[in-house]
């Protein structure tokens, strides 16, 4: 540039704008990451936005009891101790966004309604022992046993969680 200023690219991340004898450092990447992070942090996970089976989080229920699943998530916590999650505006509803529903024994969220093609969380019931595994790792069973309040567990697409047992 021939306007009395030099634009120098440094490792593709930081640009230095020289003018006079002073150097002004503009960290564009840091600014962009900050803006993107702030938008992502505030936007809740929301299912029902994809229209094909397998496009999002999936729950398979191999237990002998219903398991409550939800197609939304609010906040950044991966685990929330509440009986009803804050994002749920339509409880027991298979046909809305921001909803939850009971997946019956033998059920698979990918074979319910399009609103549950992308599940964001499932509930481990208070006073019960819930066992499950992530993906295809059936040899690595996880166990949750919440006391006085139910526990919501978040997961992201395209992950599958398989509930193997719920004992109350």
Layout: helices, strands, pairs:
Elements: E1 5-10, E2 14-19, E3 22-26, H1 28-42, E4 45-46, E5 58-61, E6 67-70, E7 72-73, E8 79-81, E9 100-103, E10 121-124, E11 129-134, E12 142-144, E13 151-154, E14 160-167
How far apart lie the N and C ends? 72 Å
Largest beta-sheet characterization: 5 strands, antiparallel
Structural class computed from helices and strand pairing: mainly beta
Number of helices: 1
Helix content: under 10%
| Helix-strand string | EEEHEEEEEEEEEEE
How are the strands ordered across the major sheet? 8-13-10-6-9
Number of strands: 14
Shape: globular
Taken together, the total number of domains comes to: 2
Low-confidence stretches: 1-48
Give a summary of the structure in a few sentences:
9% of the residues lie in helices and 36% in strands. The chain is mainly β and 168 residues long.
Walk me through this protein's architecture.
This protein has one helix at about 30-40; strands at about 5-10, 15-20, 20-25, 45, 60, 65-70, 70-75, 80, 100-105, 120-125, 130-135, 140-145, 150-155, 160-165. By secondary structure, the chain is mostly beta strands. Strand 11 and strand 12 form a beta hairpin. The longest helix is centred in the first third of the chain and has 15 residues, at about 30-40. It is globular. Residues about 1-50 have low confidence and may be disordered.
